[in-house]
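To the structural biology subgroup,

Please find below the input and predicted structure for NAD(P)/FAD-dependent oxidoreductase, which we are adding to the shared reference set this quarter. The sequence is reproduced verbatim from the submission form. If anyone notices a discrepancy with their own records, reply to this email rather than editing the shared folder directly, so we keep one authoritative version.
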Amino acid sequence: MKSAYDCVVIGAGPAGGAAAAITAEGGLETLLVEREQVPRFHVGESLMPETYWPLQRLGLTDRVKNAGWQVKKSVQFVTHRGTESAPFFFRQHDQRECSDTWQVERSEFDKMLFDRAAELGADCVDQTRLSDVQFDADGRTTGVVLKCADGQTREIDCKVVIDATGQQSFLANKLGLKEVNPDLKKAAIWGYYRDAVRGEGDNEGATIILQTESKDAWFWFIPQSRGITSIGCVGDNDYLLKGRGTPEQTFQEELDKCPGLKPRLENATRLGSLRTAKEFSYMTKQHAGDGWVLVGDAFGFIDPVYSSGVYFALEMGVRAGDAVVQGFAANDLSAERLGAWSEEFKQGAKWVRKLVHAFYTKEFSIGRFMKEHPEHRSNLTDLLIGRIFHERAGQMFDDMEKSIEKAKMSMAS
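Predicted structure (tokenized):
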């Protein structure tokens, strides 16, 4: 580790790894810093198919294909009554190979990105914590303060900081930029099971979203390699984690109310203990400043339901990395230059956010909406794929909002 860099990237998840790879490839002296030891555990194993494109940009598609991870070709929904939707097969919508994606082991996937950044010339260090980001009198970033694995504190000069600190959101918290969505204060309880019953054929690797009878919670079912499946329960934070028993008791209570999931776990064995996390949805009201830019969960977080997190992180990492490289070339490291990509990104991401809010509207059924409006199946599949950065991405929402209001009025009468 040197005393000065062009760019310091904090956090070696998908957003940080991608950003560091792009800036290093662009010829910038780059330092990538991770607070934990690499590889490290992380939840969020399911990828959207559009992940293919940032992975291709990073030169990693062949490595991902050869990693042995479970291929994901579809998404399926199961109602609170246990009724299964027809699977949304991505290849039926688009026959290109980019329609196949993966259920990854995040420790291995994130290390692949960490190693790729190093291959492209970044200095990559783990077990190193960010203590502070430093600014000059004009509010421009001048460097970072790090606490290294040996316990020593080091000041590193740099011209740009890319904050990829995840839900820690270091700069957003330091600068008061975080805005929590009061309607999406969720929590998750999850664990890993061996020999859960999966779908058949091309649906074997499907991410399955299963609602409980009350619709107060839902489960994810994410088949991974080596016969292991990630199973998680999500609900309002107050509902899942306050005033109830242990996470194990709460998980079992919700499982008993999930007719679609119980049969899949009858002969399965849980591996290790359950984990919990708060999954609060939030956005930042400023995404870049002079000499700094936010990416990944440090930029914002929606919800785990449609598995958009890793794709969004990679996409932001690549876009921000490009903006930093272009900024150095133009001798312009202003907020406008470094964050020039963010409005287009938010415009696309808002369609996933709208779909999340529809999912959490108890009166509304996506399955019923599809029966009423089969012409929108292609648009919905686009959203599940992650194909959101085009002018027709939100074309179904006028009809969906009418359907939601109709359902609310019907339930109220």
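Summary notes: Residues 309-329 form the longest helix (21 residues). The longest strand covers residues 178-194.

Regards,
Lab coordination
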